[in-house]
Known about the structure:
Blueprint: E1 3-13, E2 16-24, E3 41-43, H1 50-62, E4 70-77, E5 83-90, E6 102-106, E7 114-118, E8 120-127, H2 128-134, H3 140-152
Parallel strand pairs: 1-5
Antiparallel strand pairs: 1-2, 1-3, 2-8, 4-5, 6-7
Amino acid sequence: MKTSTGILLFKREENNWYYFLVHPGGPFWKNKEAGAWSIPKGEVSPGEDLLERALIEFKEETGQTAEGEFIALQPVKQKGGKTVYAWALEGDIEMSGLYSNTVQIEWPPRSSRMIEIPEVDQWEWFSSAEAKMKINMAQAAFIEELEKKLNEGE
């Protein structure tokens, strides 16, 4: 089974938590919203350090470096069977300078035609309630676990 790893960037404004999510690029995801958004993440190779890969993926999908105190979260299993590991990081990101690397995909599927797409085509901050609706259903557990930890710390 595949394994991915990523960073859940969060911030507090007044008494509300906000989460930074990314939307996958390409024709398949074009008009999908609810459940389509994700933490910036990517696949891990066997033996690779999970946090190190998460930081590389964050950089590839945003053009920005994630630095600070990382909070390890429990891994989740997505509907397709992929296990996702994540670390939460409190911080902000300069939205105007965001960019994503590109990847080659076959489109339409089984057509032998390759197109180049951005790995991520949108970046946005969402309130807790919005984020839980937008994010991949399994990844919502990251937000719930983090909020539990943050509330215990107050």
